[in-house]
Backbone:
C-alpha cells in the first residue's frame, strides 16, 4: 500500500483517542490513515471524509451509510467497522487494519492469475458478499480496489460507501454510482441495483483475473457504459485458451445482460463455484483419463470449433463447443451445473446428438427470433407519461396493455402519471404479451415523529428514518424553556408547524427549529459587561437611552431596562441570532438645588419647592392651615444640592 506523504493529519490525535500515524490511501470521498487506538492499544485504519465534502449532506449521509452498512456485517471476509464519529468538521470511520495489498495491486504485478488462484480469491469474495446479501445489503461498488489481500492470507471485501439496503428495485436516485468498468447493464440503463448487480461486477472481476484486462475498453466512460448495456461479455478463453470451459460458463452466467438470467445472489454463485472447482479438479486428477476424451459442453461460451485445454495432469482434453449466436441463458445454478458437468457419448451417438441439438437450436432461434415467440424490450421512457400516452407507446411496440393499472405511492412521480410497468421498463417481453401500468398516487402521507426536546442529531436521524428529507441548515431561536441544541419544533416547507399527530408527504423537506438557549439577562450589569454577554451569545446591542434612576436601585452606568425586537404591529416576537437588543443605561439619582423661598407665603413656597423636585414639609403649628404664613427658613437651606425627591423642612414666621 502507498506510504504516507506530507499530510497535516499525520500526528493528529483524532477525537482524543486515535493517534494518526501515516496516510495509506486517498480516494474520491475520503483519505485512509493508519492510526493507533490509544484506548484499546491496537492499530486501526481510519477513513476521514475530505474537508470540501463535509458540508455536502449527500456525501455526509453516504459516508455514515458506509458505517451502518458495514457494521451490520460480521464475517471473516468483510472488513470490520469498529467506530464512526466526527471531530470538529471531520467525519471519520474506524475500521480493521489489514497489512497487505489490494487485488488491483496483485493484477498490476502479475497481469493475470491462474484459474486456481482466481477460484480461491473468488471463494473468499463470494463468501463475504453472500453474508452482505443475506443481511439485505447490496455493495454496488465491487472492484479489485475493494478486495484486500492481507499478508497473513486473509481476503476481505471493503468500502461499503455505496452500499444500501436491497429492495426489489433499488435505484441510485442520482448519477450512476460505482466504477463504470464494473457496472451492470441495469445500472447503466435504469439506475436500478440489486444483488444481481453485485454478481455482474463479480463476473467482470473474474474475467479480468483470468484474462489480465477488462472486457470492455473505451476512451470515454460513456463508451464503456454503452458496451455494458448492449454487448455480451466474451468468453475468457477467447483471450486466454488455458481457461477451462467450466470457468467460461461461470463468468458468462454471472455477466448475463438480463439480470433474470444471472445467479440470484452471491450464495447461489458460491455454491456453483464449489461445483466448478470439483469439476475442474476431477479433470486434473491423478488417475489418468483416456487420451482425447471428448466432453460436450452445450452452453460453451464462445463460437467456433474445438480448443485444447491442458489440465495439471498434463492430459489434453478436446472440448467440443456448440456454436451460439445469443447470450447464455441459464435459469439457475442447477442448470449451469448440469450443463458444465454433461458428458458426450463417443462415435455415432455424439454425432446424432450434435445434429439434434443443432436442429433444436435452429428451430428455437427462429421461434424466438422471428417467429411468434420473438421478444422485444419494454420502452424505458414510460416513467412520467400519462397512462394514455404510455398505453399508445406500448401498443405501438406490439404489447397489450391491461385495462386495470396498479396504483402505488411514488414520491418521485406526480400523481396520476406512470411510475413504472410490470414487467419493468427495459425488461425483455414477448410481443403480444400483457403489460400492466403502475400509476403513481404521488408521495405517501407519513406521520411526523415527535422530536421536540430531542438533541438535533437524534431528531435528524428519526426524521430521516421516517423517510423525510431534513434541511441541512436548521433555524436557530432563543428559548429559555428548551436547552441549547435541542429541537423546539419541526416546520414544513411552507413554514407551518408540524406538531404531534401531523402528517407530511414522503421524502418531503422539513426544517428543524433548534434552541440556542435563553436570551442573557443583562439588567443592572455595566454596559460593557452587558455588551460582551449579548454579542457573545450571537446578538447585537444598541444603547437606546440614558435616564436617571431616582429609585436608587441601579447605579449610574448600569443597564436599568431592556427592549426586545417586535413585529411590525408592535407585538412581541421570537428572538433569533443577530437580533438587536436595546438597553437604557442609568444616570444614577438626579441632583437638584433647593430654591430660596424665605419671605414667601406657604402656598407660593410650596409650589416652587415641588417644581424644583423636592418634597416640602412644615413643622407642626397650632393652626393647621398656614397658607398665609410667611416662610422664615428651610432645611437644607436655600442653594443646597440634594437628591431629587428629598424632603425639605419649612419654618414660618408666626
Residues:
Amino acid at each position: 500500500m502507498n506510504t504516507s506523504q506530507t499530510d497535516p493529519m499525520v500526528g493528529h490525535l483524532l477525537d482524543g483517542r486515535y493517534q494518526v500515524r501515516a496516510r495509506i490511501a486517498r480516494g474520491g470521498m475520503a483519505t485512509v490513515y493508519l492510526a493507533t487506538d490509544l484506548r484499546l492499544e491496537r492499530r486501526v485504519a481510519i477513513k476521514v471524509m475530505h474537508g470540501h465534502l463535509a458540508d455536502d449532506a449527500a456525501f455526509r449521509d453516504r459516508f455514515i451509510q458506509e458505517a451502518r452498512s458495514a457494521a451490520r456485517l460480521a464475517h471473516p471476509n468483510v472488513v470490520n467497522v469498529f467506530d464512526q464519529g466526527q471531530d470538529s468538521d471531520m467525519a471519520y470511520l474506524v475500521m480493521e487494519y489489514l497489512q497487505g495489498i489490494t487485488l488491483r495491486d496483485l493484477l498490476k504485478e502479475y497481469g493475470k492469475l491462474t484459474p486456481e488462484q482466481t477460484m480461491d480469491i473468488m471463494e473468499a469474495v463470494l463468501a463475504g458478499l453472500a453474508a452482505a446479501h443475506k443481511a439485505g445489503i447490496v455493495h454496488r461498488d465491487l472492484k479489485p480496489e475493494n478486495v484486500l489481500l492481507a499478508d497473513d492470507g486473509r481476503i476481505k471485501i471493503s468500502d461499503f460507501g455505496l452500499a444500501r439496503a436491497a429492495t426489489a428495485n433499488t435505484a441510485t436516485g442520482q448519477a450512476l454510482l460505482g466504477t463504470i468498468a464494473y457496472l451492470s447493464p441495469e445500472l447503466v440503463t435504469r439506475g436500478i441495483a440489486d444483488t444481481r448487480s453485485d454478481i455482474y461486477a463479480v463476473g467482470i472481476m473474474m474475467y479480468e483475473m483470468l484474462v489480465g484486462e477488462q472486457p470492455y475498453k473505451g476512451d470515454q466512460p460513456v463508451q464503456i457504459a454503452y458496451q455494458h448495456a448492449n454487448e455480451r461479455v466474451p468468453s475468457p478463453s477467447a483471450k486466454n485458451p488455458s481457461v477451462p470451459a467450466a470457468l467460461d460458463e461461470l463468468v458468462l452466467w454471472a455477466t448475463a445482460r438480463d439480470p433474470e438470467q444471472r445467479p440470484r445472489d452471491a450464495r447461489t454463485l458460491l455454491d456453483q463455484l464449489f461445483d466448478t472447482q470439483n469439476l475442474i479438479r476431477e479433470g486434473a486428477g491423478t488417475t489418468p483419463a483416456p487420451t482425447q476424451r471428448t466432453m460436450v459442453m452445450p452452453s460453451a461460451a464462445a463460437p467456433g470449433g474445438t480448443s485444447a485445454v491442458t489440465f495439471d495432469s498434463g492430459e489434453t482434453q478436446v472440448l467440443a463447443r456448440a456454436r451460439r449466436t445469443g447470450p447464455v441463458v441459464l435459469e439457475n445454478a442447477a442448470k449451469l451445473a448440469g450443463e458444465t458437468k454433461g458428458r458426450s457419448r463417443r462415435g455415432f451417438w455424439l454425432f446424432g446428438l450434435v445434429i439434434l441439438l443443432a436442429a433444436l437450436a435452429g428451430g428455437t432461434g427462429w421461434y424466438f427470433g422471428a417467429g411468434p415467440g420473438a421478444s422485444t424490450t419494454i420502452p424505458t421512457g414510460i416513467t412520467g407519461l400519462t397512462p394514455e400516452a404510455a398505453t399508445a407507446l406500448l401498443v405501438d411496440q406490439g404489447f397489450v396493455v391491461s385495462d386495470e393499472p396498479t396504483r402505488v405511492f411514488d414520491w418521485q412521480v406526480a400523481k396520476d402519471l406512470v411510475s413504472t410497468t410490470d414487467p419493468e421498463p427495459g425488461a425483455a417481453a414477448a410481443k403480444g404479451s400483457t403489460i400492466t401500468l403502475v400509476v403513481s398516487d404521488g408521495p405517501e402521507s407519513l406521520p411526523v415523529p415527535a422530536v421536540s426536546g430531542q438533541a438535533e442529531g437524534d431528531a435528524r436521524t428519526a426524521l430521516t428514518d421516517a423517510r423525510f428529507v431534513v434541511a441541512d441548515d436548521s433555524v436557530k431561536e432563543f428559548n429559555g424553556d428548551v436547552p441549547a441544541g435541542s429541537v423546539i419544533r419541526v416546520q414544513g416547507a411552507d413554514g407551518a408547524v408540524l406538531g404531534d399527530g401531523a402528517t407530511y408527504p414522503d421524502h418531503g423537506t422539513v426544517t428543524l427549529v433548534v434552541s440556542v438557549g435563553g436570551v442573557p439577562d443583562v439588567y443592572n450589569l455595566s454596559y460593557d459587561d452587558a455588551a460582551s454577554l449579548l454579542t457573545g451569545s450571537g446578538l447585537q446591542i444598541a444603547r437606546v437611552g440614558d435616564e436617571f434612576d431616582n429609585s436608587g436601585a441601579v447605579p449610574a452606568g448600569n443597564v436599568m431596562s431592556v427592549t426586545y425586537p417586535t413585529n411590525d404591529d408592535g407585538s412581541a416576537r421570537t428572538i433569533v441570532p443577530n437580533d438587536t437588543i436595546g438597553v437604557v443605561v442609568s444616570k444614577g439619582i438626579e441632583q437638584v438645588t433647593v430654591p430660596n423661598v424665605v419671605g414667601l407665603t406657604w402656598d407660593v413656597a410650596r409650589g416652587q419647592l415641588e417644581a424644583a423636585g423636592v418634597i416640602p414639609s412644615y413643622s407642626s403649628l397650632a393652626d393647621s392651615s398656614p397658607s398665609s404664613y410667611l416662610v422664615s427658613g428651610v432645611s437644607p437651606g436655600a442653594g443646597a444640592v440634594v437628591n431629587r425627591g428629598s424632603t425639605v423642612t419649612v419654618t414660618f414666621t408666626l
About this structure: The chain has a mean pLDDT of 81. The radius of gyration is 42 Å.
